[in-house]
Design a protein that fits this description.
Shape of chain A: globular
CATH topology of the largest domain in chain A: FAD/NAD(P)-binding domain
Number of domains of chain B: 3
Helix content of chain A: 25-40%
Shape of chain B: globular
Radius of gyration of chain A: 27 Å
Oligomer: heterodimer
Number of strands of chain A: 25
Largest sheet of chain A: 6 strands, antiparallel
Number of strands of chain B: 13
CATH class of the largest domain in chain A: Alpha Beta
Strand order of the largest sheet of chain B: 3-4-5-6-2-1-7
CATH superfamily of the largest domain in chain B: P-loop containing nucleotide triphosphate hydrolases
CATH superfamily of the largest domain in chain A: FAD/NAD(P)-binding domain
Structural class of chain A: alpha+beta
Order of helices and strands of chain B: EEHEEEEHEHHHHEHEEHEHEHEHHHH
Chain lengths: 645, 459
Amino acid sequence: MAVLEEQYDVVVVGAGHAGCEAALACARLGLETIVFTVSIESIALMPCNPNIGGSSKGHLVKEIDALGGEMGKNIDKTFIQSKMLNKSKGPAVHSLRAQADKDEYSKSMRRVLENTDNLTIRQGEVAEILTEVDTVNNVTKVIGVKTYSGAIYHCQAVVLATGTYLKARCIYGEVSNETGPNGLQAANHLTESLKSLGIEMYRFKTGTPARVDKRSIDFSKMEEQKGDDVVVPFSFTTDPKSVQKDQISCWLTYTNEKTHEIIRENLHRSPLFSGMIEGTGPRYCPSIEDKVVKFAERERHQVFIEPEGIETNEMYIGGMSSSLPEDVQYAMYKTVPGLENLKITRNAYAIEYDCINARQLKNTLEFKHISGLYSGGQFNGSSGYEEAAAQGLIAGINAALHILGKEELVLDRSEAYIGVLIDDLVTKENHEPYRMMTSRAEYRLILRQDNADLRLTEKGYNVGLISEERYRRLQQKKELIQKEVKRMENTNIGASKEVQQLLEENSSTILKTGTTLAELIRRPELSYELLAPIDKERQGLIESGQLPTDEMLLNEVIEQVNINLKYDGYIKRQLKQVEQFKKLENKKLDIDFDYTKVHSLRIEAVQKLTEYKPSSIGQASRISGVSPADISVLLIHLEQERRKA
Amino acid sequence: MEGKTIAAIATAMSPGGISIVRISGEEAVLIIDRIFRSPKGKKRLSQVESHTIHYGFIYDGEELIDEVMVAVMRAPRSYTMEDTVEINCHGGILITKKILEVVLKYGAVPAEPGEFTKKAFLNGRIDLSKAEAVIDLINAKNEFAMKSSMGQLRGSVSNKINSLRDSILDSIAFIEAALDDPEHISIEGYGDELLKKVDEMIVEMEQMEERADNGKILVEGIKTVILGKPNAGKSSLLNRLAREERAIVTHIAGTTRDTLEEQIRIGGVSFKMIDTAGIRETEDVVEQIGVSKAKVLAKEADLILYVVDSSVDLDDNDKEIIELIKNKRAIILLNKLDLEQKVKKEDINKYYEGLHILEISAKEGIGVEALEQTLMELFFKEEVTFNDEVYITNIRQKNALNQALESLKMVKNSIENEMPEDFFTIDLMNAYSQLGYIVGEEIEEDLVNRIFEKFCMGK
């Protein structure tokens, strides 16, 4: 029988948030790329919460953008409300979150994909990964994929980004549908092919709340949640002026004792409690029934009513995901003030799906034992759109670099939240969908959202995803920051009348002796901007063009000068820790290293190291069950090998 | 790891003679500059030639600690091939320990087991052929350190540290949960509450540190286990040596069901005395546990005091004990001299050829002085010694306690300077992991677990 055969450089399986970033990265780097999706209408679909960003997730979006990814730009185009969270806290935990118009988000991303050169979108289900054994190097490598219809696509690299679609099953009450999210077709055939390649699979679970008709809600019983007056964009390339627009509100209400009572009375009908669901669910987004059971002492839980878009009447009931039966869902939602007469448009449900044990991956997101096979997103056991997009981008970039024969891109824990995310996924035991949290980042004072470009854009440029112009602007920005910080440190300020008056006006202690501008900026109540009247040089620098007239650039520089000076001591301490961290990170280990040969390594350590195949001593030290003494032994062994060579 | 400057006592811990505190690493010379004063006060050891030795004094700020000789060896001409300073001290164990503490206070970190040798190897000082020996040494020392660090802690101390850690982790989890989900959890005004809590913890830890200086928290010394049949008078002996009523003494056999320990100083030498349950065949489950624990302790002991009830004939239980102590350093005490003696030295000698057999009455206090004399002699003849690793483990623990305390002070500082809440957790986490080091716990996923356990998060 004749079959369709085509030739591409890269095949991306799935066009969710991971798949889109992967496909765009590969195509933009000049590789012929095809991206498969079970439904073209579901490109960049947001099947759960209608927002992008939030604590630590906002950081991920900024980092994706700094590397040349698309998510930040896309949400800037399609947001309907925006908020900077934790604004009263330190700069490291400021986090941007925007409500998206889901439909627009998806369409807008689809337009970008459709208009990217070298990129083909293809509806269809990939059923098999084709490999061969490269007899020269004795490695298994990817040579293509086969679709359910039998077509063969030859390629040099595959990026798996199947999200929650693999053998997906949606459940509420006694009802179970073999579908992906939103009733979309599941992908039922790929798992077997992956298993036959020796890939270890897990089964995870997550859930989503009901959607309701806006017209059935009484908002007068809820608190209005508005967006920020001044909106900050996600993308470093978006002009802040372009995102100041009318915003749509969200609404806050609460569950109550009556709600909890209904839930408790019907717990026996939950598929979780009856054992119908076998997958492992996440602890950070528990269903409302989980919350009621686990936090029995709580009198109420918050419920956020969020719009799904501008053109639709559907609203998302944040905080009340559930897999209880339809009738119970109605009953419990109706107890919530403002929802007494609600009409559900889509039921809440739990979804189960196949994913992998991510410790089979390298930090590049390539499978350790299959050359050219990459994966990203929920398929790797993570959760969240942002986590998915970040991995998709890294998997895509590395797939491309692999084909182009260039050096891989790995971000470590001191360089990016993306580095923390991937390192956690590939080195830690992961028993639930993994969510990014700021507490997972050891060096978060350095990994701020405001400096993502300073940290990563050069890397994006080296990869080839950042334009020359954007790179030049970054260099200019870096230089300006350095100069201004130095100038602040070197500008002496005497206790003149003008200075004392300025201090008094800002409720700041007056000077007894001379000081510097930098010292004044370090006071919590003062800033670079406030000190303008006593910074005599500043105006001249602007006039002579040594400080930029471009307001956007100037504001970015000022922000960095303030942060660098104010938190100087803390930042320096973390930089010192990073230095120590890097030492072990830079001691590389061969992933095929035979640990059984290392004299007197403990058996448990040999097992763990063999299982995880760490890429550096640093990574080895993070594997649970590997002790500091084991690391010493490894270091000595490496030195021994080095000297023999 | 390799970047830090490490320090430890490089010689065996014995009471007489010279002991050496060794410092190795980039900052070794800087550190000695901070604490060394020459007789005229002019000499800076950072300026002296390599491989020279200098007479002077070690100071902790303005407090004179000891008169010393200091050798300075510049990289790469030293054992570790790094800048190395060796302080030769003459003041005995306590002073040597104090000097090490001063060195740590002024910037060094305590060496991990086998770390000097590890550095020596990694820096190319030690021949390739010795690599495996180096690994073995590190393994052996680590294993010992791990075993002993737990054994060294008094139950009450580890309870206290665990409760401090628990409380710190709660605070971190609260702040982190709120940062992660600010719309569900609010930490407005938490600074004041935390400040109170941190102040209390600082006081508590300062007290612990003080007690650590008196050797009371981290029990060290020669691990001496008191063995014997039930009602042989073991607890009476402990009370007699401790000069206080530590153990409950009755005439009922089997009164001491668990072990009881006490630190006792005899002529400047520290002994960690452990009273055990009497060894006998028993049906009582609780007592059985005590008995098997006693047997384990006997194996780990540096020295055993075997108390024999000389008023009754030797039986199978005694023979079992003699079997236990055969290859150990031991003193046999024929107790109850005040009663009619049925067991004589010769009876013991039939089974055991030990040197030290004394007759005492713990109850009346007869022969106790002779016993104390024997204990001291054993030590000064170096027949029993401190185990260096136990000792060094203690210093590491104390250093960790100190680091934890410093971190909490930083938290206090951050709160007082009105820093945002996310800055608090940086130092709280340091304190948490340092305290964890003392009780031998790694941090792993503690925080994330605690957040989910205590706070209801998410969509």
